[in-house]
Each structure stands twice: as structure tokens, then as C-alpha cells.
Backbone:
């Protein structure tokens, strides 16, 4: 039924999943495999690893900027909301006190800035990470269940024509304990 | 896990992790209580908690059916149990944020073992707190109309210059941010639960909540920042929340309320009572869930020290209030602090407050008391009682004796007031017991990280083979 696959345009993604013994081994191994010319790399570990961003060749994290934008948006929304309500839409003159009282606006402006900044941190992270993703080809591996427990994996996404044997060799050379090929299943 | 090291030098610091561990043993020992069936003790506690929750449901139904006239508060005591319990519960929540956010920013490694636990307490405490102002509106289903700025046909907006409106924003922000922070920290642990589960149903359920987390290095790179920034945001937030709660009182002109020391003194009191509540729950949980190897004596000792420090801050707050009442020369302030509170009809509550909040924590000067589980537990309960008495004293004594003797009136709570209070303790306990049953009580991922950090730190105590 391979013709059917072609018709649907489905091309199974292939990954080489290599296991390393230690976190340090994974960081060093990742660096070596990347230097060997593989670009679509990802590590899988039960905790964040020191130096992994650099080993994967990632740029600056995007979250801080997103959070800053969230905070500024929250501030502007809160302040303009209060200003609109108290000065433009329904001014109430009480003993000639000022309609626009900046000091009294500080708490709500602050709270809304925090709320939107926190929201952008949380939702920004899940958007950047493309989570929730219930299915990923690496879950095809039986061993991968240990990745959230105590195992350290490197996944190498193979280009369509690439030879998995070469990736195996690169992983072995980088110090992997074992390596296997996982293929995306069509669902 | 391992037997305590008896040959340890008494001057050496106590360890943060006891015994020799690998990632696997940490994972298994911290998740064990989730996989184990609920024991008799859990069911017994859960039964008590559910009964109290039942009382809450009855009290809420009665309040909604009859109106808030069934509460004991009436002019001049317009605020009573409702606001006492609100402030008390919000304060309890503050310890969770302090432990999870502020101690994270200060890089206090000992926070790791207790942060998940106390964050959950924050969430549940804020839920309990939110019930009171909502019920006090009398018709909670209209509350959103009164509290939130939405364009209505009446064209009128909430009073943005009132601390009560600030409170709405502060507390709802606090709840939302605490929830996001808690869940973000929980996602990797849910993945660990998913991958350690033996049955397919459990794998499915935890898998849904784990959102397909695969420990990706690309994710961790952003995750670390997202988590750190949430901590950074929660830190000023938690200070602002109790500050704004204290503004509810401080901006009024009532003797005993109208004082500038309220914001810092409320925040210190909040942390004080929150730590006490964490200790009250942590000691039994650590015993029954088998968490002694990650929540060690060092943690208990540190918590006792925080209670001692914040207890003394609270004591300083009391001393300053009294000093200013005398120094200001205001006869109303003076009478409030030196006659009504100390000798009036509610004096026993005042003296109980002084005993529980100022005297009891002094026991923690002694290392033997700090490391004695029973002493810690009883002291923490007394501190909880003391902090409730503090809110009672501040709110009630000031209201029932203000400027004019013609507006003096005594207050007595009704059965509905007591039922609501006990009921929220039931709600809190129910939620907390469910949390202990279904979610790891300790942040597994962070403990694994801590183990690796300690293993690489040459000055730290040995924690087993380096992975």
C-alpha cells in the first residue's frame, strides 16, 4: 500500500534515537553529533541539562522578550481602562477631586502587568514548544519511556534520503550506549 | 532511605538529601505514594475532611437561602468572620509563593523538597479565601457584575480608587499566577508519572495532563526561562497582595486600622502563618508518604528559623502599633490599644494572640526544639491559632469600639460563621488530600537536578555515585 501513502502525501519522519549513559555524556555527544553535520537534533532528559543550549546550537531564548511585551501590554491596558472609565466615559466629580488620580491607579496597573506577563510566560512557552503534542515519533521507542525517569537520549531527525547507518556511526562515535531507528507511524 | 549517619560531626551541616540515590531511586521513592493504594489513615482523614466540607455546603446553602443576615456581623461590626477568614487564608497561601518563588531567586537549594507541596497549599488556601468575599456579597452570582469592569447598561464602573477593587484584581491575579506557576513546574513530573505508570488507564490520564512532554532540550531551554520569570513575577506579586489586603484597613480612619505599618506587618504575618501551615501538614505527610529522605531535619530546622524570624517581625509590628498609639497622642488610638484590646470584652483573644505569636516562636532559639518533630508540630498549630486571633483582634476590636460610645456594640458569631470557617478547613483538607493522592508531593524533576548539582559540588556532602 505504499502507493496509498504517496497519494496522501504522507512521508514518515525518521529519527535515530541514541541513548547516553550520563547527562555530561549527552551534552558532549550532542555537540559532537552536531559537529558531524547533523542539524535537526534534540535531547531528551528528565531534567534541564547545563550547557545543552550551547550544544544544540540554540540562539537566545525568546521567552524573556515575550514576557516583557506581556507586562507592557498589561500595564497599558490597565491604565487606559481606568483612565477611560474615570475620566472619559463616566467622570464623577466628588468635591472637586481630580478625575485622573495616578497614585490610585498604581495597584491595578501593577497587577494587570503581572497577570499578562505571567500569562505570556506560560502560554508563550507552550506555544514555542508546540505543546500539547500527544504524538511524537520518538514515543515509538519502547525505551523512550525512561526519558522522563532516568535516561538521556539524543534524537537525530534524518533527512528523507539519509542513511541511518551513518547516523548510527556518528552516535557511536559520540559515545552513545545504543542507538535505534524510530519511524513515524501514519495515524 | 538509608540509616542516618551516626558518625556525623555535629557541627557539619545537615544534608538536604539523605542516603545514596540515583535518578531511578529518586523517581521511584517520590512517586511511590501515588501508586500505592490509599491507606486507612488517608481514608480516615479524608472522611473527616469530607464531613467538614459537608458542613461548608450546608452553611453556604443556608447563607444563600436566608441572606447574610444569618451571619453574626451587623453595624457597627460590618466585617467579621468573613474578612478574618479571608485574610487568614490568603496569608497562609503566601508561604507557598515565598518558598517556590522568592527562595528560588535567592538560590536556596532546600526549597526544592517543599516547593510543590506548598504551592499546592497556596492554591487551595486562595480558593478558601475567595469564598468569603464572594459569599459576603450576598448574591455571588451577581458578584462579577459588581466587581469586574464590564460595560453595562447602567454605564457605571467599579470604584477604581478603592482598595476593595484593588483586592479583586490582586487576589484573582494571585490565584491565576500561582496556578500557572504550579502547573508549569508540574508538567515534567506528570511526564515522569505517565512513564512510570503500570496500567494503561493511568498512563492515559497522566499522559493527557503531561501534554506530550518529552524532556526536549529545546523545550528545557525556554522552560527554564519561563519558570524563572514566573518566579520573578510571583515575588513582587505576593508582596503586593497582602499589601493591598492591608490597605483595605489602613486607608480607613478607624482607630487601630489607620496606620502605615500595616503593609509590611501584614506580609510578615502572612509568611509566618503560611510557614506554620506548611509545617502542620508537612510533618505528617513526610512521615506517612515516606519522604524523610528528601524532607530532612535540615528543612524542618530552616522552616523553624523562618518562623522565628517572621514571628519576631510580627512582634515588632505589634510593638510599633502600640508605641505609635501612645506617641501619636490620639485618645482613640490609645484607648483602642491599651484599654479595649487589653481589657475589653475580647481581651482573651488578644492575649492568646500575644502568647501564640510572640512567645511560642521563641522556643525555636533552641536547636533541640527546632529538630523535635512534636514540638514543631504543636508550635505550628499554636501559630496558626495565634494568627487567626490576630486578624480577629484587628478587625473586631477596632469595629466594636470606635469613636462614639453610642455606636459601640458587641459582636457574637453564629453557627453559620463557625460552620463556614470549619467548612473551609474541610475544603482545604479535602483538596490537599486529593493532591497528595494523585500528584507527587515533591518536585521530582527538581530533586533529580538537585542531586546532580550536589554530586558536582565538591563542598557538598556525598550523595552517592555520580551519574
Residues:
Amino acid at each position: 500500500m505504499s502507493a496509498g501513502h504517496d497519494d496522501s502525501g504522507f512521508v514518515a519522519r525518521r529519527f535515530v534515537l541514541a541513548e547516553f549513559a550520563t547527562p555530561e555524556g549527552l551534552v558532549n555527544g550532542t555537540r559532537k553529533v552536531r559537529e558531524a553535520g547533523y542539524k535537526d537534533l534534540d535531547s531528551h532528559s528528565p531534567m534541564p541539562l547545563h550547557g545543552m543550549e550551547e550544544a544544540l546550537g540554540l540562539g537566545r531564548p525568546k521567552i524573556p522578550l515575550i514576557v516583557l511585551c506581556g507586562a507592557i501590554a498589561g500595564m497599558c491596558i490597565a491604565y487606559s481602562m481606568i483612565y477611560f472609565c474615570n475620566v472619559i466615559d463616566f467622570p464623577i466629580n466628588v468635591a472637586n477631586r481630580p478625575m485622573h488620580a495616578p497614585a490610585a491607579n498604581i495597584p491595578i496597573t501593577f497587577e494587570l502587568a503581572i497577570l499578562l506577563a505571567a500569562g505570556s510566560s506560560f502560554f508563550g512557552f507552550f506555544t514555542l514548544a508546540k505543546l500539547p503534542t500527544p504524538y511524537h515519533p520518538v514515543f515509538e521507542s519502547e525505551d523512550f519511556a525512561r526519558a522522563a525517569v532516568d535516561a538521556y537520549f539524543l534524537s537525530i531527525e534524518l533527512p528523507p534520503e539519509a542513511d541511518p547507518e551513518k547516523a548510527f556511526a556518528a552516535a557511536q562515535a559520540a559515545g552513545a550506549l545504543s542507538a535505534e531507528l524510530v519511524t513515524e507511524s501514519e495515524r | 532511605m538509608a540509616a542516618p549517619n551516626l558518625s556525623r560531626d555535629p557541627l557539619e551541616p545537615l544534608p538536604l538529601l539523605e542516603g545514596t540515590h540515583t535518578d531511578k531511586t529518586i523517581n521511584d521513592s517520590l512517586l511511590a505514594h501515588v501508586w500505592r493504594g490509599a491507606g486507612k489513615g488517608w481514608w480516615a482523614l479524608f472522611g473527616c475532611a469530607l464531613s467538614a466540607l459537608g458542613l461548608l455546603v450546608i452553611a453556604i446553602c443556608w447563607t444563600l437561602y436566608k441572606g447574610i443576615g444569618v451571619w453574626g456581623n451587623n453595624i457597627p461590626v460590618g466585617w467579621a468572620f468573613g474578612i478574618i477568614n479571608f485574610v487568614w487564608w490568603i496569608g497562609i497561601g503566601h508561604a507557598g509563593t515565598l518558598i517556590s518563588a522568592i527562595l528560588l531567586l535567592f538560590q536556596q537549594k532546600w526549597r526544592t523538597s517543599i516547593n510543590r507541596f506548598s504551592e499546592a497549599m497556596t492554591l487551595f488556601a486562595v480558593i478558601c479565601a475567595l469564598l468569603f468575599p464572594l459569599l459576603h456579597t450576598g448574591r455571588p452570582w451577581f458578584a462579577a457584575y459588581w466587581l469586574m469592569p464590564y460595560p453595562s447598561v447602567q454605564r457605571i464602573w467599579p470604584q477604581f480608587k478603592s482598595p476593595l477593587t484593588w483586592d479583586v484584581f490582586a487576589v484573582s491575579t494571585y490565584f491565576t499566577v500561582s496556578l500557572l506557576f504550579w502547573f508549569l513546574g508540574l508538567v515534567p513530573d506528570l511526564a515522569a508519572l505517565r512513564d512510570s505508570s503500570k496500567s494503561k488507564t493511568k498512563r492515559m490520564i497522566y499522559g493527557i495532563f503531561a501534554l506530550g512532554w518529552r524532556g526536549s532540550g529545546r523545550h528545557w531551554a525556554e522552560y527554564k526561562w519561563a519558570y524563572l520569570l514566573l518566579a520573578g513575577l510571583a515575588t513582587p506579586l505576593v508582596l503586593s497582595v497582602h499589601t493591598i489586603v492591608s490597605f483595605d484597613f489602613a486607608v480607613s480612619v478607624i482607630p487601630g486600622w489607620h496606620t502605615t505599618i500595616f503593609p509590611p506587618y501584614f506580609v510578615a504575618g502572612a509568611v509566618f502563618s503560611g510557614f506554620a501551615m506548611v509545617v502542620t501538614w508537612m510533618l505528617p505527610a513526610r512521615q506517612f508518604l515516606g519522604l524523610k529522605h528528601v524532607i530532612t531535619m535540615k528543612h524542618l530546622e530552616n522552616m523553624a528559623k523562618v518562623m522565628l524570624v517572621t514571628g519576631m517581625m510580627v512582634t515588632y509590628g505589634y510593638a510599633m502599633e502600640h508605641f505609635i498609639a501612645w506617641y501619636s497622642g490620639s485618645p482613640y488610638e490609645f484607648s483602642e490599644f491599651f484599654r479595649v484590646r487589653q481589657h475589653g470584652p475580647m481581651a482573651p483573644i488578644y492575649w492568646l494572640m500575644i502568647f501564640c505569636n510572640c512567645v511560642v516562636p521563641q522556643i525555636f532559639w533552641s536547636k533541640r526544639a527546632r529538630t523535635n518533630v512534636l514540638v514543631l508540630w504543636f508550635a505550628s498549630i499554636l501559630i496558626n491559632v495565634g494568627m487567626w486571633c490576630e486578624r480577629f483582634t484587628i478587625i473586631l476590636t477596632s469595629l466594636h469600639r470606635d469613636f462614639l460610645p453610642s455606636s459601640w456594640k458587641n459582636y457574637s458569631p453564629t453557627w453559620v460563621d463557625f460552620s463556614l470557617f470549619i467548612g473551609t478547613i474541610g475544603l482545604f483538607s479535602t483538596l490537599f488530600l486529593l493532591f497528595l493522592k494523585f500528584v507527587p508531593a515533591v518536585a521530582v524533576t527538581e530533586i533529580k537536578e538537585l542531586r546532580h548539582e550536589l554530586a558536582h559540588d565538591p563542598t557538598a556532602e556525598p550523595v552517592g555515585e555520580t551519574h
Remarks:
- Chain B has one domain: 23-456.
- Residues 1-6, 460-467 of chain B have pLDDT under 50 and may be disordered.
- The CA atoms of residues 300 and 371 of chain B lie 7 Å apart.
- Chain B has 16 helices and no strands.
